[in-house]
Amino acid sequence: MEQYDSEDILAGGNRLTLWHFANPSEAADAAIALYGSGASLAAASAAFAARYAGREDDFRFWFTVFSRLRRSDGKEPPAGKTLSDEQKPPG
User: pTM here?
Assistant: First the structure.
């Protein structure tokens, strides 16, 4: 992601997004501290709100947080891991 200094942002050349001052790992930790087992739901809600408000950069930030939370709680397999043919359900 391209970074901009505060003068560029204040001049209106680029929008300020969450990526400028937060990182997804820290946001995931904060979501767990605030929402406990509902942390992934809170991150998903923030992602949807950002997407429908037209803030694509913030959507990507919150979706990254959501993905990290889902991987950490064991509800999403690690990236690149797939089921073997024997493990897949029939049909």
Answer: 0.66
